[in-house]
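Here is one chain, start to finish.
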Amino acid sequence: MNRLKILLLSSAALVFATTLLAGAQPNSEPKTRPYVVGPDGTPVSAASPDSSAPPLTKVYVYQGCSTSAGCEYIASGQTETDLVHGGTDIYVTVYEIGYGTGETATQGGNLLGSSYLVSKTSLCETLVKLKVVYGPCSVGQTVVGFAYEWNLAYYIENNFGELFAASDTSEVYPYNTYSTSLTIQH
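Its structure:
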């Protein structure tokens, strides 16, 4: 009987060790697989049964737009808009590279409700002059991230504050949280 207990215990230890050596986390949930873009531009199927979704590696403000100032791209490390934004529509687009659990955003410290999320679209990689560029997906491309577009006009026009912030947590290991912020001049 004792030999059977030792054998069962050794088998469990072997499974645990094999799981760790394979890079998986014990008792972790199955990983989400990346999606391929279909003819209508939406993710339709997993890229490969053996592949796992890429972890979230970047969250950054891509651009800001408004009815009064037009659009401006936000450079890496830029902390405030160059243009003074205002009007009935003030949008910020955040790029997330990798798969997150769902972005949250604040304006002036106030949590933005889902009704202020104008769109969430798929991002794919394209190689342009030996540089990776993220943008809209073509049919058959693998989705590598998402663009979130937020409408901030209500919060900015009603003086809730100028600081926009967004964050998300990777939906796969190592489950890191990334964030970004930008002061919207008004």
